[in-house]
Amino acid sequence: MLTKFETKSNRVKGLSFHSKRPWILASLHGGVIQLWDYRMGTLIDRFDEHDGPVRGVHFHHTQPLFVSGGDDYVIKVWNYKTRRCLFTLHGHLDYIRTVQFHHEYPWIVSASDDQTIRIWNWQSRTCVSVLTGHNHYVMCASFHPKEDLVVSASLDQTIRVWDIGALRKKNVSPTDDILRLSEMNTDLFGGADAVVKYVLEGHDRGVNWAAFHPSLPLIVSGGDDRQIKLWRMNDTKAWEVDTLRGHTNNVSSVMFLAKQDIIVSNSEDKSVRVWDVTKRTGIQTFRREHDRFWVLASHPEMNLLAAGHDSGIIVFKLERERPAFSLSGDTLYYVKDRFLRLYEFSTQKDTQVIPIRRPGSISLNQVPRTLSHSPTENAVLICSDVDGGSYELYILPKDGMGRVDPVQESMRGIGTSVVFVARNRFAVLDKSNNQALIKNLRNEIVKKSNLPVVADAIFYAGTGNLLCRAEDRVAIFDLQQRIVLGELHTPFIRYIAWSNDMESVALLSKHAIVIATKKLMHQCTVHETICIKSGAWDDNGVFIYTTLNHMKYCLPNGDNGIIRTLDVPLYITKVSQNIVYCLDRDGKNRSLAIDATEYVFKLALVKKRFDHVMSLIRSSKLCGQAMVAYLQQKEFPGVALHLVKDEKTRFNLALESGNIQIAVASAKEIDEKDYWYRLGVEALRQGNASIVEYAYQRTKNFERLSFLYLVTGNLDKLSKMLRIAEMKNDVMGQFHNALYLGDIRECVKILEGAGHLPLAYVTAKVHGLKEVADRLASELGDTVPNVPEGKVPSLLIPPTPILCGGDWSLLRVMKGMFDGELDNMGMAAQEEEEDEAVDADWVEDLDIVDVEGMLNGDVEVVIDNDEINEGNDEEGGWDLEDLDLPTEFGSPSTAISGRATAFIAPTPGMPVSQIWIQRSSLAGEHAAAGNFDTAMRLLNRQLGVKNFAPLKPVFMDLYMGSHSYGRGFDSVPVITMAIEKGWSESVSPNVRYPPALVFGLSQLDDKLRTAYKATTEGKFVEALRLFLNIMHTIPLTVVESRKEVDEVKELIRIAKEYVLGLKMEIKRKEITDDVVRQQELAAYFTHCNLQIIHLRLALNSAMGICYKAGNFITAGNFARRYLETNPSNENHVRKARQVLQACERNLKDANELNYDFRNPFVVCGATFVPLYRGQKYVSCPYCGSHFVPTLEGQLCNVCDLSVVGSDASGLLCSLSQVR
């Protein structure tokens, strides 16, 4: 049994496969109908309108319908697309056992415990026939797949075959009167439309199941007599052919599998059995340990079976369908229908070579599994599971065809895995001794080699080499030198595929593909959600593979994608140019033409063959969001720019690639405010002030425009912005522009004009404008505001800009291939302009329209012409009529494209702090990089940390300590530099090291010594603070070796014990009125794992407390434990001996304590009560403190960080833990 899918649920009573989709319906004893995708292993939907168990369910073979029947006496017809019940059929008077759609007519047949079978018309929603005759529960009923027959099985120990030919004839053209009369007769006497053709008697007890053979006149049945009976019928009679015995309990379900000429049955004896129809013997038995089987279903078109049992369903195949094949140059050798065949790719000629031996034993899965061919000797090895694993060696005729007697010509041997390793040598895996037996073509052993791993299969890996597969790894073994050439940890590998040059190998597991070099150096891994079937390498070094429903590609860097969908699973044999050759499950050769443009384009990008990329872009229709997204992901937005014509997409790609000129052109086409704003942001990032200015002008964003002129020191244009604000009567804009200019008189004038006389007075007074201040004071009279005396005022004067002018000086770089050649595609009309602009400078020659003219143009939009001052006063007015606008006003595309064809902007680098966290799972490194969010998520996942407040100072110390800060000019921000561990001047600038952290193991050791000292001196509060600090620092500490990791974990244990003990001791000192609790806490303190010096002090203290309270037995125990530590203090020793003597004379305790020193225990970290051996407890995932179960989910009282009882992966503080 090859299990494909399993579920866990209530008892399954009904099953049905969908004919086209990979779905299966399961009706449960709990009343729910589940719809599963057995290929993906997911539950798609559930339907739960039945009241009670649902025993029967069936898919319609063409409509989006299924039918169900249950213990609520009703039949429901559902539409799985709309996910609802369409209607309910009432009529049965007891439990409904099975339901089934007719393959052609709109009928449903149902069997019930009311001893009837009913046939329903689901289109008219009426019962068209009632079949009566059984005198006990009818357990099942089903239509014949071709004829007008129904078979039913009942607990009355009979199987009945019903002829429904009359019903079919009436169904063609019934009249209303006849139909009405028929329905009346049906209700009174049972229908005459269906008559009993045969009654089959032979079972000794009730019959649970009966089924027709799909094509032969046979019926199979199974019952409570534990027997399976085979019946044959003709036109006049039916008779019993044979009985199959083997089940040890009631047979639940039985059916024919016509393709393989077998019967499959299942039973309450927890087994599924397979029987040979012709020989009528058992072939195979599959058992479950605890689950009884109830129902079977077969897929109508595929080699799939499903069985329902007490705790779910299992979908399985009985035999492998993958054909055995071997590629040899231009020919393919493969096995089909017990023949070895040869297929030539060039001529597409398929010929039969020789017949191969049939297995002697009667069993499933005896078909050939692997095939290996030696082209020089024209020999073939065929390996199968016969006799537990065996092989056959055939020497083929030299002409490749002909009849060969296989008995004489083939040589056999035992071995689960066999492969040619040289011209006339092949290797056989001897699993019992873990050896490779090297044999010659006479099937004689010439050499034995012990394998380096415990192998369960071997594969060809070049002449003289074997690839050995173990459970969790593969290794390449040189048989001559007996050395391991390479080893790689992998999932369980099923198949391998070598590239044409033998430089790369693809290792295929069930759900993953590992690409490696010939020395097994890992290159990439691709994961799939559904089963991987086969694969082969194409001429370009791309791996083409198939899953159950897709053909896909995988590039050497791990990028993969879909080439096409598949209707049926295919097994790739060879890929040549754009043709993929495959074998299907029937062993037929197929060739599929594919479009390789997408993966060839991606491969050219990966290999940086940009000339090839350019030719593909010119000649192919590469398009689609997926390709654009791929280019963006791989940081080739400039290439993606040339694949799209949508202006909005081009704009986004241009911004991403830093191509500001194309962004300007796209923004002009789109002409939306949001796009101009984003263009301004990107241009500002690049320091291209001209474009920023242009973008702000297009959106009339005067506030941002004014600020731009301020930061670039363009005071002339600021003055013009002030005039624009005046013309617009924008008081706030006037005031801002006056402030930016530092024009205090203008500020005072604006404030005065707006009616803010007190503010105008204060401004004039503070800035020393005495005349203006006096005039305003006279106007204000008694309401003149007081200006504080003796204080130096801060004047509202803007700082002097460091750099006055336009664009930043940019790095001059060479023109990229894509930015030159591809810009010219389809632009022949612009060639002259581009030629003129080739020598344009990166910045200075960008001839954006003169801002004065641009501003005037804007003013024309906002202000009517008759409002503009066109006079020739002293200040010259706006001079609108004298403005000589350039011809390219508002369309700086010529200069822009000129710049674009000459240079491209350099790609920004990645910050060092981002490099630190790219592949790090260490929370300390994330915190040092300033990524507190990811650091906290890591701590939560690794240690269950929820309370991060105690860690805040540690986070800040790590971040500040891992960076250095340098100041530049006053008006520029502080320059931050990351400090790397182990950096030196001789190292390449591209090599990056992890961050230099301020916390290490040595600092923790120093803190530990200080904490020990405070504990010894009795400064418990200070000692507790220090131990807690150690616990709060460890999660963000990074160490080098596994030895240091062990030391850190030991530190956690020490700190936890001391924190718990010190908390109990501090609590004891706070208690004054409870003598019993004082003794208990003192006693528990002595059971913490302390240093010997502190243990002595704790024992001494507990001894004194208990002795004073009259608990002499307990005090004597402490005295005895103290003396066992061999103390050196004579006074304490003498005192302990005296106490021990006194206690031994008076063996009693005045108080009963919750303390049993004879029974091992740990102390709850929150309630401070003992948890004795055998009691349930929960623990902290970080510090390991124990707590009573009621505290699960609360914050740990010991470390004050983690949640008690939460799932966590464990402390990760070193890269050595993840290697």
Automatic annotation (TrEMBL):
It is a peripheral membrane protein. PANTHER family: COATOMER, COATOMER SUBUNIT ALPHA. Oligomeric complex that consists of at least the alpha, beta, beta', gamma, delta, epsilon and zeta subunits. InterPro entries: Beta-prop_COPA/B_2nd (IPR006692), Coatomer_alpha_WD-assoc_reg (IPR047312), Coatomer_asu (IPR016391), Coatomer_asu_C (IPR010714), Coatomer_complex_subunit (IPR050844), TPR_COPA_B (IPR056176), WD40/YVTN_repeat-like_dom_sf (IPR015943), WD40_PAC1 (IPR020472). Residues 626-772 form the COPA/B TPR domain. This is Coatomer subunit alpha. Residues 815-1219 form the Coatomer alpha subunit C-terminal domain. Its main location: cytoplasm. It is found in: Cytoplasm; Golgi apparatus membrane; Cytoplasmic vesicle, COPI-coated vesicle membrane. One of its GO terms (biological process) is endoplasmic reticulum to Golgi vesicle-mediated transport. It comes from the Eukaryota. GO terms for molecular function: structural molecule activity. WD repeats lie at residues 47-88, 89-130, 131-164, 200-241, 244-285. It comes from Protea cynaroides.
